[in-house]
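$ ./design --mode recover --in tokens.txt
reading tokens...
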């Protein structure tokens, strides 16, 4: 059996047609958008575990080893991996669901079928994911967000149009694709994170995608604290770069490009090779060399 569920909590969700967010760790996550969004919602919203997957069947421990702490003469702690669906309540008491944890390493077809089967049983209205990609944009301007969906009619106002590109897929990508094949609505929101901040947490981008999720799903998220974190983070960036003689010129050039494209309504279209190279570089920076992973 791949998962266990809470029957009583499942009954409380039935008939509400909740949205299901899937925010999994393990793929491209510039600005820590995916991870930070899930973590923030669990901090800010009342939640209970609805479904717990047997992640032992899905995890490659030699690829992603648990972190352990050794103190003096004994092991005192270790991280553990869990893949769960929580039932959360927004500020109006409206329920929604969220799948968080490590992206499965194995059995993607089986795990995808399990998630979509649960979505059908729970009468999920839509599946939604968020992510961040490193782009040549300044941190001093509003975060741009590109949407994608199994139903293109639900998408409008994208700041960037991409003709066609081939990239390494993620579990969330596969889940969205299979949902589309099954006739389910699945959506995603991708924040454009300044490339020079891709390795840090960028709350401004997290807030931008969560606002898009809330609008799409008809939810009310408590985002005041996240807005405060975003403002504090921007102030911190200004403080840390104050002594950097070159940084202002870089930001100014990005601002001019951003403003020019915004005022003209023109689309900035990177080539497939540029996008693929940027993604491959980011993935290489995230993963340690193979010699050190086993």
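writing sequence...
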């Amino acid at each position: 059996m791949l998962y266990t569920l809470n029957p009583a909590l499942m009954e409380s969700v039935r008939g509400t047609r909740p949205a299901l967010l899937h925010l999994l760790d393990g793929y491209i996550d510039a600005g820590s958008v995916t991870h930070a969004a899930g973590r923030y919602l669990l901090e800010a919203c009342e939640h209970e575990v609805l479904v717990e997957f047997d992640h032992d069947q899905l995890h490659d421990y030699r690829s992603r080893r648990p972190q352990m702490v050794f103190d003096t003469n004994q092991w005192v702690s270790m991280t553990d991996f869990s893949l769960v669906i929580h039932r959360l309540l927004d500020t109006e008491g409206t329920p929604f669901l969220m799948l968080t944890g490590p992206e499965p390493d194995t059995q993607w077809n089986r795990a995808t079928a399990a998630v979509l089967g649960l979505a059908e049983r729970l009468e999920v209205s839509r599946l939604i994911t968020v992510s961040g990609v490193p782009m040549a944009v300044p941190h001093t301007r509003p975060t741009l967000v590109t949407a994608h969906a199994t139903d293109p009619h639900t998408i409008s106002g994208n700041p960037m149009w991409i003709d066609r590109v081939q990239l390494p897929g993620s579990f969330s990508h596969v889940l969205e694709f299979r949902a589309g094949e099954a006739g389910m609505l699945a959506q995603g929101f991708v924040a454009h994170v300044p490339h020079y901040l891709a390795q840090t947490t960028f709350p401004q981008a997290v807030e931008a995608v969560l606002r898009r999720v809330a609008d799409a799903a008809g939810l009310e998220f408590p985002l005041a604290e996240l807005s405060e974190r975003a403002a504090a983070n921007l102030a911190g960036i200004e403080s840390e770069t104050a002594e950097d003689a070159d940084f202002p010129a870089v930001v100014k050039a990005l601002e001019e490009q951003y403003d020019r494209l915004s005022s003209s309504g023109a689309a900035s279209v990177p080539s497939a090779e540029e996008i693929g190279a940027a993604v491959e570089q980011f993935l290489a920076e995230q993963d340690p060399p193979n010699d050190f992973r086993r």
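exit 0
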